[in-house]
Known about the structure:
- It is a single chain.
- By secondary structure, the chain is of the alpha+beta class.
- The chain has a single domain (11-146, 158-423), classed as Anthranilate synthase.
- 28% of the residues lie in helices and 30% in strands.
- Strands 1, 2, 3, 7, 8, 9, 10, 11, 12, 18, 21 and 22 form a twelve-stranded mixed β-sheet that branches.
- A hairpin with a 4-residue loop joins strand 21 and strand 22.
- It starts with 10 loop residues before the first strand and ends in a 5-residue tail after the last helix.
Amino acid sequence: MQRYQHNQKQNVYICYFYKNKLLESFCEMKEMRKTCYLNSNDGTGTLAFGDGPYLRIDAPACFSEIDQFTLDHENSYIFALLSYDLKNGIENLSSNNPDDTKFPAVILWCPEFVVKVSDSGYLYVHGKERSGHDDFIRSIVDDNTRSDMNETVSFIPRTSKKKYLDTVNKLKEHIQKGDIYEINYCQEYISYNTDIKDIKNTYLNLNNITRSPFSCMFDSDEFTLFSCSPERFIKKNGFNLITQPIKGTAKRGTNENEDKFLINNLKNDPKERAENIMIVDLMRNDLSKVAENNSVKVDELCEIYSFETVHQMISTVSCKVKKEYSFVDILKATFPMGSMTGAPKISAMELIEEHEDFKRGLYSGSVGYISPNGDFDFNVIIRSMIHNKNLKTLSCSVGSAITVKSDAEKEYEECQIKIKKMIDVFKH
């Protein structure tokens, strides 16, 4: 089941409140205050904007409210941002580490306008075109509007290299004791007193570097999210449900021969394959909670896909979902995604809280949408930056899977490969 292509341009999920002097008078009409753009970068995409029903919830024990919102708007497009900390509303868990972004547990929004974008133009599937829309749409979907970066940002690692290495070795001790088999351990890079003056251009430059298949940008009066995620969390099409965990990363080579060498090494690396297969087993178990009997299957196992900055090992797990299960039922069975926790999932999340030194918030969460027919598609928030405009903090987190075979130095190097291109988009 081919779900990616080598060097494929990305599906982008963008939600943001657009402000631009060119469109200042139009923005005063409040039509552009909320915007969401999903871009496959193959010439097609979906753009949503305009005021509509909007729900922000801070407390993670909010699944009844999510369920009610989706029921109230079941014939509408619903765009959602889901924090990692929703886990606390699923299991008896907590999140008490330092939090410099203060992102809520969930944001849900039904747009006034939804436009399908293609090479030949665009088609309104919800709402009717109004004066000023054309320039607005083109300003978002046209990558040629990107210009050189003038933003200056300095990131500070919250976790020192020594502490990172020590923590990896402590986690390996837990693995050797049998407490867990694998854990996703993350660290945060933070920039204080930071304003992002040109949000759209910052995203376009990040996107130009990474070309990841599930990028996203979200911008509101309080928050901005820039994400260059290569990973799908979960997708529903009819009664078909798929999830595509990523475990296993290698840098890109400087030429074709080096790339082939690195791809072969990654594909045959026993540690990377073990990481991936453990999460595949976890996701099979998660899907089985909502699946028709005997419908869970592994469509792809440990396939290698190449992106602009890295090669990734990706598997695809699918099932037929039972008709009676709602979006919230599926979310509670599968969230957070196993690739960002570890196995067993609850034990891994407990150790994540104990050993990490920041609250993940939206990082390790998800952005996506529910269509009027009940289908949905959600990504994994990794390779991302989260900006709190009021606090002027910009957070960029990164992680990797720790197994008994992990080498702490190599894990640290892997994290640097993942985060370097993101951070380097800014002046230092």
